[in-house]
Design goal:
The chain is 55% helix and 16% strand. The N and C termini lie far apart (69 Å). α3 packs parallel to α4, α7 packs antiparallel against α8 and α9 crosses α10. It is α/β, with parallel strands linked by helices and 372 residues long.
């Protein structure tokens, strides 16, 4: 019995409500070892002491140390194991979308709203426990770029293959981003290798400072980088990319003779993950989109769909929406409605509104016939 129990992933539930903790423990008890903490400080102590914890569920509003403070402690930890833990925030009715956005930008992996169902909790626990295990395994196996410490191209592709396979199996999102320092060749020619190297390393350090710990950053060229954003839709990928670029575009290097300002161009793609898809194709999309971003006169940011002809974009958008409708109905019937991406909800509702209106009208007609 002891060996079987130890093989179960360990989940930490942090909430000042005894009822919430008991409910979560009951829902997860069969497949997981569930640990409980009464507030953020208690949870933080357990996270530091227990290396077996693979996923953290934390309430946002708690005494002593709240969810935001706990999240900051986790993401700022020197221990990579702690800093990389998936953290799912438990939200209440009083938590606004603005608050949730702030928490997401601070590094939250996902959200779950009260009152949550067993399928909501179990699906997230399973997905993120598996993801955390894969990330830990990948970190042991992959190589790094010697200059920056980031992953190299081979490692990036290997991690991308596994992340894409995971996304296709579980019906979750994935995004890839290629980035490049604009005008780097001129910087190198004008200021030499020493200054150019300093800039390359400084940009790499900024990635570590602003990215979520589950994201992957790699150096794939002289001044070219790549990001892998697992479990991230196009909308959320744009938030991550904006945060990265805002941080790096603030960099100013003083050579003594002049100041060099950095402009980072970015091309991003967030394809629908499907069985049989190759991550190499996603990399090609990101690369083509980066070239488009670099050619822009103004804002050097582009998405893959922008680079396609308008007719193709319209056709693919229609096909994509049809697929999303079919997928949405399937997810709703299976109880996995939370997997429907937030940025897909509005077009789905718009498509369903005529049917809902028709159904309501039919109910009114039936009611009038009965009354007559």
């Amino acid at each position: 019995m002891g060996e079987q129990s130890s093989q179960k992933p360990e989940i930490l539930i942090i909430d000042d409500s005894k009822v919430i903790r008991a409910a979560a423990t009951k829902m997860l008890g069969d497949g997981y070892v569930v640990r409980e903490a009464v507030d953020g400080r208690d949870g933080w102590q357990q996270i530091q002491q227990n290396k077996a914890i693979s996923v953290v569920f934390s309430d946002m509003q708690m005494p002593v140390m709240n969810g935001m403070e706990l999240l900051a402690s986790i993401r700022g930890a020197e221990d990579e194991r702690i800093a990389g833990l998936p953290v799912i925030m438990i939200t209440g009715q009083g938590d606004t979308d603005e608050v949730k956005q702030q928490v997401f930008e601070a590094g939250a992996t996902d959200f779950i709203a009260k009152p949550f169902s067993s399928i909501d909790l179990l699906t997230r626990a399973k997905s993120y426990a598996q993801l955390n295990a894969k990330v830990v395994e990948l970190e042991k196996q992959t190589g790094h770029d010697k200059l920056t410490g980031l992953f190299n191209l081979k490692s990036y592709e290997e991690q991308g293959d596994k992340a894409l396979s995971f996304a296709a199996r579980h019906g979750v999102s994935i995004s890839a981003v290629y980035l490049e320092i604009d005008g780097f060749q001129n910087i190198f020619l004008s200021h030499g290798k020493s200054v150019a190297t300093q800039i390359i390393v400084a940009v790499a350090k900024r990635f570590e400072a602003v990215l979520r710990t589950e994201d992957v950053a790699a150096r794939i060229g002289v001044a070219k980088y790549a990001l892998l954003l697992p479990l991230t839709s196009h909308t959320h990928a744009k938030i991550v990319v904006d945060r990265v670029r805002a941080s790096i575009n603030k960099l100013v290097f003083d050579t003594g003779k002049e100041k060099i300002r950095i402009v980072l161009a970015a091309g991003m793609t967030s394809p629908e993950a499907k069985e049989g898809m190759q991550f190499a194709d996603i990399m090609e999309q990101a690369d083509a989109t980066l070239k488009r971003a670099l050619s822009k006169a103004g804002e050097k940011l582009a998405s893959y769909i922008e680079a396609q002809p308008k007719q193709v974009v319209a056709e693919e958008a229609g096909e994509h929406l049809d697929r999303e409708l079919q997928r949405a109905f399937k997810l709703i019937l299976e109880g996995d409605y939370f997997k429907i991406e937030r940025d897909h909800l509005k077009p789905l509702i718009e498509c369903l509104t005529p049917f809902i209106d028709y159904a309501n009208n039919q109910e009114e007609l039936t009611s009038n016939e009965i009354n007559e």
